[in-house]
Amino acid sequence: MSRVLIIGAGGVGGVVTHKCAQAPEVFSDIVLASRTVEKCRKIRDQISRPVEIARVDADNTLELVALIRKVSPDIVINVALPYQDLTIMDACLETGVAYLDTANYEPRDEAKFCYKWQWDYHERFKERGIMAILGCGFDPGVTNIFCAHALKHHFDTIQAIDIMDCNAGEHGHPFATNFNPEINIREITQRGKYYEDGRWVETEPLSVHKTFDFPEIGPREMYLLYHEELESLARNIPGVRRMRFWMTFSQEYLTHLRVLQNVGMTRIDPVHFQGCEIIPLQFLKALLPEPSSLGIQYRGKTNIGCMIEGIKNGRPQKYYIYNVCDHAECYREVKAQAISYTTGVPAMIGAMLMVTGIWKGEGVFNVEEMDPDPFMAKLGQYGLPWTETFPQ
Length: 392
Ligand code: NDP
Prior knowledge:
The chain is of the alpha/beta class and about 400 residues long. The protein has two domains: about 170 residues, NAD(P)-binding Rossmann-like Domain (Rossmann fold, 3-Layer(aba) Sandwich); about 200 residues, Dihydrodipicolinate Reductase, domain 2 (2-Layer Sandwich), CATH 3.30.360.10. It is about 35% helix and about 30% strand. The strands form three sheets. Strands 7, 8, 9, 10, 11, 12, 15, 16 and 18 form a nine-stranded mixed beta sheet that branches. A seven-stranded parallel beta sheet has the order 3-2-1-4-5-6-17, with helices on both faces. Helix 3 crosses helix 4, helix 7 crosses helix 14 and helix 13 crosses helix 14. The N and C termini lie far apart (about 45 Å). The structure holds NADPH dihydro-nicotinamide-adenine-dinucleotide phosphate.
């Protein structure tokens, strides 16, 4: 029996709340807090169990500390934006409460993400005797766990990892992003980067691409991007020599993105406009559909997984593990599209393993440092079944 405080009432926050509500034996009390309390109310009204709601500005540590003291949760699940990671971690340190998130910290004024800022909290969490789990969505999250599972059960050494993220869904809008538009566009427009032989190799944005035949979807063009799980996996998978992250995009999406970039709409520096300062990307976010609104007409599937190569019993081996998720089925179950669903379910499972003491530790950890077995067992049970194959 535990009390959970979920911060962020967007697409992912809705799924986490629904999924915690499906496990009353673990999450006996649920509190959902966000900047716009109306969004919390909308999610609460979809759920038959009681959900308490609250307003909080998660950029403000003092407000967070006051809320955490009032709610007295066993864990805080942070599904607001990466900008709020450090203030929420500060508030957890102050109040001595466990922390979990799905995306690593990003400063607002620079399109850069890396784990250093959060890894630097390790000693303080350890001294306080509390645990933080970073990046427990799908990618990062399940993809890291897939690697830990592969290492534990199928390889003596992992040499190469290709993480492949395909969304073959149609939402009916000419252009929309599947999670927070600001964070999504910042991620996609930066330079590509992959890991090889102990160093990072940079590429021009979206310049490296190839076709892959995704099970249950078919052939799709996927593009090399830098993604945060590569950083933690480089630290935690011993001996790995090459790691790349790939994501599929349609030509329609890429054309819109190119035009928006060319006209300056993806800029993150302030621009003077009619007597006030605006940040073009934040203005664009205000025009684009909210990710949480896409679910109602989303059709098609996602396929996210890892192709792993390495050595088992002295022989080279290839291994592919993936999940397929159907947008419309997600909407029927929790009123969300598959990107929010595939992020929210792992966040709930990670929190469940922490509050029940199955995942234990003092300090700041990435998910691949934990035992993958109990997590993998719960994935299918809570809606994300996985398939593994050994391609020749
Ligand atoms: P949304 O934009 O739909 O939701 C974000 C929510 O956070 C909104 O309700 C927003 O409030 C709230 N919020 C923003 N700033 C604050 C603040 N200062 N104080 C309180 N609440 C705030 O995003 P998503 O739900 O799509 O994404 C949530 C998180 O999940 C992001 O960090 C994203 O990067 C991560 N993610 C991780 C993935 C993974 O696989 N690991 C995949 C997809 C997403 P308001 O409505 O008022 O703006």
